[in-house]
Amino acid sequence: MCSSDLATGGHFDNVVAAIQKMLQVLIDEENEDTVKRDECIKKTHDHTMHKNDLLYKEERLTHKIGVLSSEIQQLEDNIDENNTNREEQRDSLAEAKTDRDDAHAAFNTAQADDTEAVRLLTKAIAALTKFKQAHEDSSAPTVLAQEPEFEVDEDQAPEADLDANYGGRTKESNGIVTILTQIKEDLVSELGSDSKAEGNEVMAFEQFTAQGRSSLQAMYDKDVALNKALGETKESKVDHEDKRQDRVDERGVVQKALDDMQKGCDWVLNTFEIGRAHV
Length: 279
Hints:
Layout: H1 3-135, H2 170-278
Helix pairs in contact: 1-2
């Protein structure tokens, strides 16, 4: 082989080697760009998925907050209604007590009046009875119930003997005593029936009062439970609002990172496409 052939061959090898080196550089740069591209694509995807996940959680929390707000409103309405019912129950018990006190006072007054009337009637009956017994001729035949006999003329009344023993109007006395006795008995019976009626009224009032107090206690217990539930629901709403705000803040951070990264990734992607086009 001549020296010119060797020179030519040696130069060609150098060119080939330079070309291969250049190709290797391009391949390495393409691989590096591919890694950067894939990294940008992955990070963009991950950040986007994270952002969408946070947005979904925000929406869920917003929905839950709306539900809790409705529950709070319902609990507040129930508390107001229960308070109104308690006030009405208190008023009903107070009114019933006033009516009972008035009725009892009227009963005591009527009982006192009737008792005094019985006492006076008893004294009157005793006086009339004593009067009748004092002027009644126990030895005379009982003819008071018969009409008087007329010796001269049946149309002419017999002359009165003013000197005779006074027998009084014992028949009328008997009638008065009977009437007064009946009145007294009626009053005594009325005293008994009124006392029984008063006892029944007292019993009914006590039952009504017991039921009313039981209802008040139940309403009080309900108020405690409702207010407890209201407090817990409000706390839960605040907790969900805080969580939602955390998601909003976190999504803002992710969005900023995504925006900052997007500028570099756009350059990497554009460079990668340009580089491939030149290869």
